[in-house]
Amino acid sequence: MSDPAEGSTQDYEWTDPLLLSVRHLTRYDYHDDVWDSFNEARLQPVSDTAQECQDFHLRVDPTATSLRDYPDFYGNCVHYFDVPQKHARLEVEAISRVATRADTRGSIPAVNPPSALQNHSEVEDYFDFLNDSHFVSLDKEVWRESIDALPNGVSDLWQDALTVGRHIYKTFTYTPFTTTVNTRPAEVVLSRRGVCQDFAHVMLGMCRSHGIPARYISGYFFNPNRLPDEIEASHAWVEVYLPGYGWKGFDPTHNRIPDTRYVKLAVGRDYGDIKPVSGTFRGKGTRELRVEVQIRREG
After folding, report:
1. DSSP string, 178-235
2. Which of 64-68, 124-128, 226-230 has the highest mean pLDDT?
3. Dist CA 139 CA 135 (whole Å)
4. pTM for the predicted model, two decimal places
């Protein structure tokens, strides 16, 4: 997950359009041969009001017997493939070119009262993102933290979501290697440490505890201060639902609203819905995982 060391304060918003190239390599090394590997990849960036995926290529080694795609329940493009032959290594490399731009929807409405969620024509857009999910259980620790952030409850969905996100930024410490992909928000609340995935999960739990619809976003953050050959990581943030407007993001790790430096990859209730690569295989081999991300500006 990306390191907030560069630009970790609320700096100015980037509005200039960017053309970004992304390389995302996932490599599994098995300690013994495996076979009949079946996998899914959520690695193709979305196209929406803030970005357009202009080109995408997925390479699988060993060569898969089939490579197909389908839209999942949340509209993410999922590529699935089989590798039936024996192999001791699996590489999945995604190469993307994405044009980002300032959100074309205009300004957020000045007032976003919770009562606006009672518009039944919009309920299906956010219903799944109000409740607990596999990685975001609404434990008492998370509920208590949400009360600390919003002791008077919710009066404005957007402004109060910002308050929650900024509370996490101010009171939690970004600390790599203290958590795993399976760490739950309650554990993070108790330790006050984690990475962007953890902070996104905590913000989801706190928002949902207050009835604010919130969903998990996976993607990338372009840092112009990185060295040319420096290896980066994927990133995670949150979007909340605003009736009559749609989904709007906030990044609690960097304390900012996502701008043209951000590339959205997939959306879901939590990390479990958007795993970049997941799958099963036959064999007794344990495996080691290596992930490399590089995001560069073109032109």
Report:
1. SS-TT--HHHHHHHTEE-HHHHHHHHHHHHHHTT--EEEEEEEE--TTS-TT--B--E
2. 124-128
3. 11
4. 0.93
